[in-house]
Amino acid sequence: MQRSLARAFAAQSRNWTSHRTAKGCWDKIEQFAIFLAGLDNPPGDLDGLTVAALQTWRDQHIGTNTGRSRLATVRAVLQRDPRLAAGPVADELARRVPAPTPSKQSYEESERDIVVLTAQRQFRAAWLRIGENTRLMNRWRAGDLIEGSREWRIGKVLDHLARTGDVPRTVYPGGQKHVKNHRLLGGRDSEKTWGRLFLDHGELTALAVLLTDRFGWNLSQYDRMPVPTTGPSAGETRSRTYQVHVEKHRAGGGRWFSTENITDSGADSPGRLLTQAMEATAPARALAHSLAPGTDLLMVARSHRPDKEHRDRDRPPQIGPLSFGVSDDMASWWAQVSGLHGSPFQRARRTTVTGEGRPLQHSQGTHESRYVLPDKKVQRASRAVFEAGAYEALQQAKSAVFGGTVTGGPDPGHQETATADCGDEKASPWPAPDGGCGADFLLCLACPNAHVHPGHHPRLALLREQVLSLQSVLDDRDFRERWSDHLARLDNLRERVGLTAWTADLARVTDRDRSLVRLLVKEDLAP
After folding, report:
1. Would you put residue 474 in left (φ > 0), alpha (ψ -120 to 50) or beta?
2. How far apart are CA 275 and CA 228, in angstroms?
3. What's this model's pTM, rounded to 2 decimal places?
4. What is the distance between the alpha carbons of residues 483 and 118, in angstroms, rounded to a whole number?
5. Is 170 helix (H, G, I), strand (E, B) or coil?
6. Hey, is 188 helix, strand or coil?
7. For residue 169, what are the β-bridge partners?
8. Using an 8 Å Cβ cutoff, are 330 and 201 in contact?
9. Residue 35: is it exposed, middle or buried by C-beta count within 10 angstroms (0-12/13-18/19+)?
């Protein structure tokens, strides 16, 4: 059984690009193995699986999101075994497993404001700190400072920090290290020492939160995100356009890449955040390149514990004191210390995607099924749209039916028109500037003041035939725009009068009826 599961697991893993995916699948297979071991008669190999066992496994997991995810993963692995490709067990494995219901919702505006403001305060403070110290270091390197002055001495420490990743320290017997010049630097904590030029993990996570809020990028994007390339914007001298390499692990059964062009044209432009990210990470990126030439990753931070390397195989290995990317643990820790409820990345991405109204690094089907339709905020915002659409559809439906009254005979108080008798010209839905009715005679059949009696039936039956004949001589679009509503009203009136009577009325058509119908349709019958 173990060998068979291992072979199936290996076959399933061929297109994986993430150790996290492999670990997640292995954990689910382990749960399945524990389930099999607990059966009264555990099978010795996969070909010993029974429909009853698989049904029990399904019943235990079908009720929750976690369970449905486990079912889908295990099923995909088992179907890799050729012995389970046919028969009752194969039919059981082929049963549909409902997709997990998305548990994350987009942020309400007030919730998003709290998350973004928290990240902005943290990252902006770090960006200003690093920018100030970088400028001081560059002045020291250029020889613009008075030798021996306080600024000169700090600049010298910063130059050492930029080249080594740490401020000068004194090593005492026993291995303890203490910051030299701590009075000059203003303290021993990270912000006063190595944090003068480097982001820490919390500040890098805050930057990633802002990038996700702005561009909708996945958390995994930041693990190996190259430094954006830059070029001048067409016709602009003060703008710069970044080409950002975006990676999506799960699209297309393997790594999927695209390039997004983002322009920094001012303080409120999307590209300004990228400019600040480039500036805040510049010293760390320079150090990484000097320690490992060719390293060119944007999201880099200085670790508080350089001697303790992370074990996340999906992220690049550390280079000296520097680490790259943002892990799930870092995201959860950042949210916890910031007083937020859970990692913000999934909800922030969902908020951006639904607000953007179009797919971002995913397909249209995923956009609709995974992001738009399950989102409660979108559902609430859509109600007014649905109501307006329903009202519009109702009005269109009303316009396609006879709007007046079918009577048994003429009323002396009504005024005759070409298609009906008018009960009140002054109450027309289409008033003329002089106060009368401004509608053409064909619209009489849509008016609530119209009264149609048997004397009108022959003329209207002939009119319907003439309108139908226009379909063969007019372009489809022209016919729909000019005649489709009139034909629909005539069809509705025909149903109300009755097909037998309507057909008989054609035998009673007079020369006056023919003349009036010819005038009604003459512009479209003319050669």
Report:
1. beta
2. 10
3. 0.69
4. 60
5. strand
6. coil
7. 179
8. yes
9. middle
Helices 2-12 and 65-78, axial angle in degrees (round to 10): 100
Residue 382 identity = S
Nearest-CA neighbor of 299 among 219, 384, 355, 400? Answer: 219
Q: Which of 245, 243, 263, 247 is nearest to 255 (CA)?
A: 247
- Alpha carbons 315 and 346: distance in angstroms, whole number: 19
Residues 518 and 441: beta-carbon distance below 8 Å: no
Task: Output the CA torsion sign for 135, 136, 141, 146.
Answer: positive
Q: Which residues of 328-343 are buried (b: 16+ CB within 10 A; e: fewer)?
A: eebbbebbeebebeeb
DSSP label at 324?
A: E
Instruction: Let me know how long the chain is.
Output: 527
Helices vs strands, H then E, count in the chain: 18, 11
Question: Token pair for residue 378?
Answer: 């979108």
User: Going residue by residue through the chain (527 aa), what tens digit of pLDDT does each one get?
Assistant: 999 999 999 999 987 878 888 999 999 999 999 999 999 999 999 999 999 999 999 999 999 989 999 999 999 999 999 999 999 999 999 999 988 777 678 888 889 999 999 999 999 999 999 999 999 999 999 999 999 999 999 999 999 999 999 999 988 887 778 899 899 999 999 999 999 999 999 999 999 999 999 998 989 889 989 999 987 655 556 788 999 988 766 554 555 678 889 999 888 898 999 999 999 999 999 999 999 999 999 999 999 888 888 888 888 899 999 999 999 999 999 999 999 988 999 888 888 888 776 667 766 767 666 666 666 776 677 667 666 666 665 555 556 678 788 888 888 889 888 888 898 888 888 788 777 788 778 888 888 888 988 888 999 889 988 888 888 888 888 888 888 888 888 888 888 888 888 888 888 999 998 888 888 887 543 33
- Residue type, position 60, single letter: Q
Among the listed residues 254, 312, 313, 257, the one whose alpha carbon sits nearest the alpha carbon of residue 14: 254
Residues 6+ apart with CB under 8 A from 395: none
Question: Hunting for tokens 């954006």 — which residue is that?
Answer: 228
List the one residue out of 454, 216, 220, 249 whose CA is nearest residue 353. 216
HSE of 7, CA atoms in CB hemisphere, 13 A: 10
**Facing residues of 381 across strands?**
none
Distance of CA 489 to the CA centre of its chain: 43
8-state DSSP, 319: B
Quote the CA–CA distance of 466 and 484 in Å, as a whole number: 13
How is residue 90 written in tokens? Answer: 């194969």
Q: Which of 447, 453, 402, 407 is nearest to 424 (CA)?
A: 447
